[in-house]
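Recap from last week: sequence in, structure out.
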Amino acid sequence: MSLPTDFGPDSGGRIKGLVIVKPIVYGNVARYFGKKREEDGHTHQWTVYVKPYANEDMSAYIKKVHFKLHESYANPNRIVTKPPYELTETGWGEFEIVIKIYFHDPNERP
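Predicted structure tokens:
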């Protein structure tokens, strides 16, 4: 197999026509405590994650992962800079989490 050797304008060293695909898995898991905790009313421990589909080191191409939690959490903007790209917290309800992946390659947008 031969690869194209021409570089696109302002490519930053990219090879024109070459596409690299790295499948990922993202999601969350939650565990019920069995009852509401007296100290804070939380009922669950949860983990949100970004991980490779295949068992590989994503730090070769991922610089950091930004998890934006509900505003009721202290420091709702959490940055994870090395694997495993995950957060574990406790809570009592459900909410949406925004996940933004930043790449080492500055030509790739988050």
